Amino acid sequence: MKTRPVKLAAITSWLDWALRHACSKDQFDMAVAQRHIEQHTEKNLALMEEAARRGADVVVGPEYFRASELFLTTPENKWALAEPLDGPTAGRLAALAKKFSLYVGAAYHIRHNNAVAEIGVLFGRNGEFVGMRVKDEPEPPRVFETDFGKVGIQVCSDFQKPRNALALGEGGANVVLLSGCGFMGPFAEAFVVVRALDHQTAVVYADSGQAMIVLPNGNIPARTSNPNTVILTDVDLSKPVKP
Fold first, then answer.
1. Do residues 7 and 57 touch, judged by C-beta distance below 8 A?
2. pLDDT tens string for the chain (243 positions)?
3. Which CATH class is domain 6-235?
4. Where are the domains of the chain?
């Protein structure tokens, strides 16, 4: 584990929910959907790169990282717009992680086990695949080893379940990366703070409209409610944080 403070980072994006109606059912246009998804993904990758250039050791993006969810109005759309686990977006996240030697996490729709699931993924400093979490899967979340400590991955409603917090705490997680979609609004802060206390870990939360970094004692050293924003803070994981 690193002895120096670890710089944790999260980004926010912006989702144009009007596109969900404009491209639904008989109005669906694959070219429009793919173009928007590409633009949204590019913007999020650029924000992650900004965090990397500002010295982040780990940066977390929101759920809906690709925003394909805006167009998942039929089973056919859902399958067509999702990517495989080793697809283009995973490759770009891995390349970013390797280029700037940091850990990169995000969540988006992925084809997995002959179905489409919302999955959080994490890539390491050499671009290697570190681990993943399938949203709402019944199995307890795993904890993954990194060079700065043990990391847990959660996706959106995962963090509402106390059993997940217990599993991560028992697994010795030092940091929990949480990708959300923004529906929780002001309630997200309360949930994230409670989970940080439950986990007794730092929680890095990112969604489309807000982001926050919460310490094990519930303090929030960095937060934003602005879209297209990067937040960062240094945390010394080797020292207990007093309430």
1. yes
2. 555 799 999 999 988 888 877 776 677 888 888 999 999 999 999 999 999 999 999 999 999 999 988 887 788 888 999 999 999 999 999 999 999 999 999 999 999 999 999 999 999 999 999 999 999 999 999 999 999 999 999 999 898 888 998 899 899 999 999 999 876 667 778 888 988 988 889 999 999 889 999 999 999 999 999 999 999 999 988 755 544
3. alpha beta
4. 6-235
